[in-house]
Design a protein that fits this description.
Layout: H1 2-16, H2 20-30, H3 32-44, H4 47-52, E1 58-70, E2 80-96, H5 98-165, H6 171-206, E3 212-216, H7 230-240, H8 242-262, E4 268-280, E5 289-300, H9 308-375, H10 380-415, H11 420-427, E6 430-437
Antiparallel strand pairs: 1-2, 2-4, 3-6, 4-5
Helix pairs in contact: 2-5, 3-5, 5-6, 5-8, 5-10, 7-9, 8-9, 9-10
Length: 446
């Protein structure tokens, strides 16, 4: 029964997501980093209605109820006990408050900055999903490469052992082949362990465990991005990159903050409307009740506040200069990263094509080395090294394809043009007929 439950849970986890789009959708709903970013955005945008309140009417109402015990010592007026109550309502409408206005304008820019920060996190989730996904595929290719190498070295060891048994080779060949086999087994065990570790990264993104994912088909095109003009990509990045746009909004917000602080020297004008009602049961209170309505315009001009306003102006000016420097730093970094990533992608395209030729050359070299070993012109070490070069070339080819995929995603992210459509295009090359299955149990062939 326990075994059945385990298999059921394993199949259910595998069915949750098998391709990169399914993993992304699960991450979109469950990734803690994105969830925290959304809540951070929700909190930061509230600064807009908070500062806007300084420009809107303020209505207050208050009142009291009192019991009085009044005496007049030395006077023929009798003591009295009476109740009284009063209430007052006041409406205040700012007519001129430059500081409140600039605070509101700065808050709008900070809200826009928060939106760009969230958009950057949403873009980075695509990259993190792709990174985690191709890491598993890369680890699986390394597993298969080391398994193939181990099997080939084992066959070579058996052949050497047979040749040694009939006296055709020395014991050193057997020892060399045995050492190579032991080393290949170690590399295979390490690769299998790493593959399971990379599967765990998906759990940190989605909160779910997966037993298998789809491979990327061999038909995945490895082509240069369009256009292959560095300045075009840099120009786009400086306009569209979300971190740059957020930094620009920060500069605008800091500029409004400076204007708000400078406005601390200006007067404020408010319109006030007050209505109050007072009622008393006291015998000495004429009329018993009074109602009062007051309408007035109120001007306030700060003259001297101990240097407080001047200090805030100096602080805001420094903050503005700081934000400008941070913007310049971000623009330079984006310019550098865009150029480097474009170069990396074009290099990846050339590398993939070169890796194909390297595999063919390694296959030819191995065949020639094996022939030489058969006729006695090469030794077993030459054969083992040729085998290692072949399997290393095969893995390097696969690794180059995954590096191309990731570098292309990073390039589009840096340029600010990475979209869900890019992930969908990559997912269109998923191959469900050839899944990668998680390795949960390691084994030794000895």
């Amino acid at each position: 029964m326990r075994k059945f439950l385990f298999l059921f849970a394993f199949c259910a986890a595998s069915a949750n997501a098998t391709n990169i789009d399914d993993v992304y959708q699960a991450a979109l709903a469950n990734d803690p980093q994105l969830g925290a970013a959304k809540q951070n955005y929700s909190a930061r945008k509230e600064v807009v209605p908070q500062t806007r309140a300084g420009l809107l009417p303020l209505v207050t109402i208050g009142g009291y109820v009192a019991w009085n015990d009044r005496t007049f010592p030395g006077s023929p007026i009798p003591a009295e006990e009476f109740d009284e109550h009063a209430w007052q309502a006041q409406l205040t409408q700012p007519l001129f408050d430059a500081e409140a206005y600039f605070n509101y304008r700065g808050a709008q820019h900070r809200s826009d900055q928060a939106a760009y920060d969230l958009a950057a996190i949403e873009q980075s989730l695509i990259v993190r999903v792709v990174q985690a996904y191709v890491d598993i595929l890369r680890a699986q290719d390394l597993v298969e490469s080391t398994r193939a190498e181990e099997a080939a070295v084992k066959r070579q060891l058996e052949q050497v052992q047979q040749r040694f048994d009939v006296g055709l080779v020395a014991i050193t060949d057997v020892l060399e082949a045995t050492a190579a086999y032991d080393g290949s087994e170690v590399r295979r065990i390490q690769a299998e362990g790493d593959q399971a570790i990379f599967f765990e990264t998906l759990r940190t993104l989605t909160g779910s465990s997966y037993g298998e994912i789809d491979r990327l088909a061999a038909e995945l095109p490895i082509v240069n991005p369009e256009p292959v003009v560095q300045e075009d990509w840099i120009s786009t990045a400086l306009e569209e990159n979300f971190t740059v746009r957020a930094a620009r909004e920060q500069v605008q917000a800091a500029d409004r903050d400076l204007r708000a602080r400078q406005s601390g020297h200006l007067p404020t004008v408010d319109l006030l409307a007050t209505y109050s009602q007072f009622s008393s049961d006291g015998a000495n209170f004429l009329g018993g009740e009074t109602n009062t309505a007051i309408y007035r315009a109120q001007l306030s001009l700060p003259i001297y506040q101990g240097g407080y306003t001047q200090s805030r102006v100096r602080e805001a000016r420094s903050r503005l200069l700081e934000s400008e420097e941070r913007l310049r730093e971000r623009e330079w970094a984006v310019r550098r990263d865009t150029a480097n990533l474009l170069r990396a992608v074009t290099t990846d395209v050339l590398r993939v094509n070169s890796r194909i030729r390297a595999i063919r050359s390694a296959e030819s070299a191995l065949e020639a080395t094996q022939t030489g070993y058969e006729v006695g012109t090469r030794n077993v070490v030459d054969v083992l090294l040729a085998q290692q070069r072949l399997y290393a070339s095969q893995f390097d080819y696969a690794d180059s394809r995954y590096r191309y995929v990731l570098d292309l995603m990073l390039l589009k992210q840096t340029a600010g043009v990475l979209e869900l459509a890019d992930l969908d295009e990559l997912n269109s090359f998923a191959d469900p007929a050839s899944p990668v299955t998680r390795i949960d149990q390691l084994s030794s062939h000895r």
